[in-house]
């Protein structure tokens, strides 16, 4: 996690939400201090410690408690608690919750995919189908859920897909061109969609071959043709509901765009100690101030 970049992004998010000042929180006495408790409203996996810690530091709040990233959540669990000026807690609330519940949702779905696959010989990875501006946090959340990261950016590796192959005149030409223009530390991956393309790719010997939109049966047969020094990746429409079918196929990596491009936020709530909602969640009327 790049903490400098994180602080810059959080400052932008706060500026976007607060504007020239929180007109609602300004109604509260500026000296009022309390504790805000954030509670999970669904089962899942926690992710977002760095967001909590950095926002607290920026907003001069004290972190009274916080779960570790990757911790299993049950509905009703306290995820973290912050203490500070009530005005500040409330003006920070939406940015904080939006980010944390989004990261938790990605970590949760990743964990579900890893558990559904149940094959430790295969790595489950994300893709670049991320939300602009949130890639660092989304990719981090995947790791919190037990997955791995694919390319972080376009400059991490050469990834030759169908349009590159068409533009460069074929798989062999594309791989040869990639080798002449990149150093030895830049891996080369090529996507194949037919058995003929697979054979051509094997002959050209890239670092990684992506087997696109193959059924589990096809994938198993194709992987058997690939020499062990070439990493194999399965991609294309694989979801948490279908990934179990790819168990035992022998592929090295399965990339799942669903991990980041279509998750539903894991619901959570922030309640001030002494508020009615805080008391209700604990069935304790004495907690109302």
Note the topology.
Blueprint: H1 3-18, E1 33-40, E2 44-45, H2 49-58, E3 62-66, E4 72-73, E5 78-85, H3 86-117, E6 123-125, H4 135-144, E7 158-160, H5 162-168, H6 171-181, E8 188-192, H7 195-204, E9 208-212, H8 216-223, E10 231-235, E11 253-255, H9 258-261, E12 268-272, H10 276-282
Parallel strand pairs: 6-11, 7-8, 8-9, 9-10, 10-11
Antiparallel strand pairs: 1-5, 1-12, 2-4, 3-5
Helix pairs in contact: 1-2, 1-3, 3-4, 6-7
Short account of what is shown:
This protein has 289 residues and is α/β, with parallel strands linked by helices.
Q: Could you explain the architecture of this structure?
A:
By secondary structure, the chain is an alpha/beta fold. The protein has two domains: 3-107 and 265-287, Alpha-Beta Complex (Aldehyde Oxidoreductase, domain 3); 113-261, Aldolase class I (TIM Barrel), CATH 3.20.20.70. 40% of the residues lie in helices and 19% in strands. The protein contains ten helices and twelve strands. A six-stranded parallel sheet has the order 6-11-10-9-8-7. β9 (208-212), α8 and β10 form a beta-alpha-beta unit. α3 crosses α4. The longest helix is centred in the middle third of the chain and has 32 residues, at 86-117. The protein starts with a helix and ends in a 7-residue tail after the last helix. The mean pLDDT is 95.
Structural descriptors:
12 strands; six-stranded parallel beta sheet; alpha/beta; four-stranded antiparallel beta sheet; Aldehyde Oxidoreductase, domain 3; TIM Barrel; 10 helices; single chain; 40% helix; 289 residues
């Amino acid at each position: 996690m790049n903490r400098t970049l994180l602080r810059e992004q959080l400052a932008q998010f706060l500026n976007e939400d607060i504007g020239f000042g929180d007109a609602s929180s300004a109604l509260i006495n500026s000296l009022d201090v309390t504790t805000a408790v954030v509670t999970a409203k669904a089962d899942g996996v926690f992710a977002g410690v760095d967001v909590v810690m950095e926002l607290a530091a920026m907003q001069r709040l004290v972190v009274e408690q916080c779960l570790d990233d990757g911790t299993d959540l049950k509905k009703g669990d306290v995820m973290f608690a912050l203490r500070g000026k009530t005005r500040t807690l409330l003006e920070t609330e939406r940015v904080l919750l939006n980010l944390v519940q989004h990261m938790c949702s990605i970590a949760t779905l990743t964990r579900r995919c890893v558990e559904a696959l149940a094959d430790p010989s295969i790595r489950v990875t994300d893709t670049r189908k991320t939300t602009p501006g949130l890639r660092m946090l989304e990719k981090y959340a995947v790791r919190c859920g037990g997955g791995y990261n694919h390319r972080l950016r376009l400059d991490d590796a050469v990834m030759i897909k169908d349009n590159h192959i068409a533009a460069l005149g074929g798989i062999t030409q594309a791989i040869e061109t990639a080798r002449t223009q990149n150093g030895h530390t830049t891996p080369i991956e090529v996507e194949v969609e037919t058995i003929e393309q697979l054979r051509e790719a094997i002959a050209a010997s890239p670092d990684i071959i992506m087997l696109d939109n193959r059924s589990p049966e096809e994938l198993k047969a194709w992987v058997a043709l690939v020499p062990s020094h070439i990493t194999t990746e399965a991609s294309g429409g694989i979801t948490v509901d279908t990934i179990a079918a790819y168990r035992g196929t022998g592929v090295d990596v399965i990339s799942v765009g669903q991990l980041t491009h279509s998750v539903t936020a894991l619901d959570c709530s922030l309640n001030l100690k002494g508020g009615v909602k805080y008391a209700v969640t604990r069935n304790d009327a004495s907690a109302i101030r």
